Amino acid sequence: MCPLSLKTSDSTQILATGKAKLWALLVGVNQYQDESFPNLDYSAMDCRELGIALNEATAEFPCKQILIHHDFAAELPTLAAIDRQLQWIATTAKPQDTVLIYFSGHGVIEYRTYQAVLCLQDTRSDALLETGLRMQTVLQRLETCEARQQLVWLDACHSGSLMMRGARDVGERMMSDNPTVQLVQVLRNRAAQSRGFYALLSCDEGQRSWEFPELGHGVFTYYLIQGLRGEAADNDGVIEADALYRYVYRQTVQYIQQKNQQLRALNEEKRLRRESPLYPEYPPQTPKRIVEGVGELVLGMISPDAIGSQSPPSASVPTLSLPSHSTVEASPEPEPIESVLSDDLSDDMSAVAKTAMPPTVASSTTAPAPGTGDTTILYHHSTAAVTTAPISATSNRASNTTVDRTLISNRPWRPYIWIAGALMGAAVLLPIAWSWWRSNSMENAESHACNIKADYVQTGSNQRFDAQILLDNCEAGGSWQQVRVQTLTEHVGPVWAAAFTSDGNTLASGSGEVVEIWDLRTQTLVRTLVGHAKQIHAVDISPNGQTIVSSSGDQTVKIWNLATGKLLRTLEGHTSTVWSVNISPDGQTLATSSSDRTIKIWNLATGELLRTLEGHQDWVFAAVFSPDGQTLASASQDRTIKLWDWQNSRELQTLTGHNNAVRSIGFDPRGERLASASWDRSVRLWDLETGEVVHTFTGHTDHVVSLAFSPDGKTLTSGSRDRTVRLWNVETRTSMATLYGHTDWVLAVDFSPDGNTLVSGSRDQVITLWRR
């Protein structure tokens, strides 16, 4: 269980008055000059995002200095730079100030002296004490610092079974897979000397700090960030160090447990099919706190009104009745969620349901306010961990269950039920229950749905449903239905990419480390392409439908034969994660973009590298060809979009205006306009002739990470970290629809060639098809 908290005073409230200053030094190291240290995937992003969250949480503190050093920052995480900052803080901070030191990267033990060493970008394994940041040095600097309140956060146990050079045999291993023993010892010594010292470690002795692609962070730092964004704030909006620790502790432990529940479910299915090997489970990770007499260290002040805005608060859900008549009515009286099984389904499912784990039922949350339209359509399902059916939709329960019974009898349900109880944040809809409800209720409701009584759907009301469609304008939005293609495959991982073939019959998706090929006519997985070593971030299919290209965090691009699944060639040249792939309209050229800040142009048929485009100052998230193939557009974390004459390696224009990273871009079918999605929560439409912003679409409440134009160019869709898919009318420049159903970031969206189907892929490991 999580240890109890200790509190003595609230003296650091003076931070909010400006009488004291907050000093923060944040360090994250992904890539090491010494090849003996394996590169990490998320430490730099951990540092960057933690800095943003800390800056937001301390917005009310008038006096602060946040120093950030990571691979992609202006100040790199070298020993000279970090030691210089430590000395400056130690000699400048005043007694009433608070000092925070954060490190994410490798932590190892020097095998001769058994000192704990934090490995920086230029640390050498054969000279750890001379080139690494000794933990004892950090604490010595803090000991000479006058600041009475000192915090140290370490996410430094990523090394696994790393063996340092110079170790003569196994007996002289660095214990680098567990530097925590030495870290705990020196931190305890420091805590005993100072009542204001507070240390957090990502894991306890003998454990490892885990990173998960679906989080985009180490799990420890991910929840530090969420806590600073308000999840650990009290009712007054105060984020206190010990409350933050308790939040991080519980969330980290729960996440690892739930990942293991998923793996057990998959292993159960593999046992039923007599397949091996089974998936290994993650060993536990329990964050550790080191403190003797902790004060009430205030880390941030969030407006009480904003608490929960990052992830919506719990709320009761009104019952929706969907009888077989012409009007869909929202009940004015909210009622608690109920788990309802139809009589017909319960006979088939009750025995299986008894074997399920205790479910984790998602609480419903507040929906964004409806738009300017006069009516709002709500298609509702009840939330239950084992199965779902509409509350009160009893009038035509039995109308469509014959086929469903047949499907149920032929499906290995138990693993899916276990997964439904294990996934974080929300229940997973079982496909048959969902299909049953949709066929029962939607047929009768669709043609008259715009007659809904909106009296009880007020702006700001707590009416939010886990799988609903909110249409702000019925005529403009049309009627989009949700059809689940996949709940969870054997390949556990987020869906970062999705692409249709030109005939619309086949879908390719990047899930975890594999590419999956789906036949949409039968909604079956027909082929799995295995070869990447890390998370796949992008896929694209050639215009002739013969070739598929994928890119990954393993720094490679792979070209496959779509029909046979054969790997044709692997393209190497990027030195970091490859975020995007795009095939030119004539099918001859491939563009790729990477965290190494470059765009590479390849001959698709031969794999020859034709040229490298350089100019961005940070990660390049996307590179796409114009419809005529003459222009290439690129989007970067440096907040800019660049247009290129790629055949002559010439930069044509730089588009500026976004206030954060530009994550996704796309040309309209005529090549006259460009759309961009940004972490600044907006989607912008650009006139390419003038380079000016035509319109800014707003409505997402978190980072926008994916977008796509419809084939006719009249509709734009976007996916966001706020878990929604939005549809925008390009001509009227209004919001058409908000599609709910995903329980995590929507990482990929795309339209089918006929424009009647929309696919969305999410970090919740689900692919969803939305059909008009």
Number of domains: 3
* Integer average pLDDT: 74
Can you tell me the overall shape? globular
Largest sheet: 6 strands, mixed
Low-confidence stretches: 1-12, 159-177, 307-478, 484-491
* Quaternary structure: single chain
- CATH class descriptor name of the largest domain: Alpha Beta
Beta-strand percent range:
25-35%
> Based on helices, strands and strand pairing, what is the structural class?
alpha+beta
* Cα-atom radius of gyration: 27 Å
Total number of helices = 12
Which fold name is given in CATH as the topology of the largest domain? Rossmann fold
Helical proportion, percent range: 10-25%
Beginning-to-end CA distance, first to last residue: 49 Å
Region (Disordered): 308-341
GO biological process, one term: proteolysis
Organism: Thermocoleostomius sinensis A174
Keywords: Coiled coil, Membrane, Repeat, Transmembrane, Transmembrane helix, WD repeat
Topology (SSEs and partners):
Blueprint: E1 22-28, H1 43-57, E2 64-70, H2 79-92, E3 98-104, E4 107-110, E5 115-118, H3 128-131, E6 133-134, H4 135-144, E7 149-155, H5 180-193, E8 197-201, E9 211-212, E10 217-218, H6 219-231, E11 238-240, H7 241-272, E12 288-291, E13 298-301, E14 314-315, E15 317-321, E16 329-335, H8 343-353, E17 364-365, H9 402-409, H10 413-422, H11 431-446, E18 469-471, H12 474-477, E19 481-486, E20 495-500, E21 506-511, E22 514-519, E23 524-530, E24 536-541, E25 547-552, E26 556-561, E27 567-572, E28 578-583, E29 589-594, E30 598-603, E31 609-614, E32 620-625, E33 632-636, E34 641-645, E35 650-655, E36 662-667, E37 673-678, E38 682-687, E39 692-698, E40 704-709, E41 715-720, E42 725-729, E43 734-739, E44 746-751, E45 757-762, E46 767-771
Parallel strand pairs: 1-2, 1-3, 3-7, 7-8
Antiparallel strand pairs: 4-5, 5-6, 8-12, 9-10, 11-13, 14-17, 15-16, 18-43, 19-46, 20-21, 21-22, 22-23, 24-25, 25-26, 26-27, 28-29, 29-30, 30-31, 32-33, 33-34, 34-35, 36-37, 37-38, 38-39, 40-41, 41-42, 42-43, 44-45, 45-46
Helix pairs in contact: 1-6, 2-4, 4-5, 6-7, 7-10, 8-9
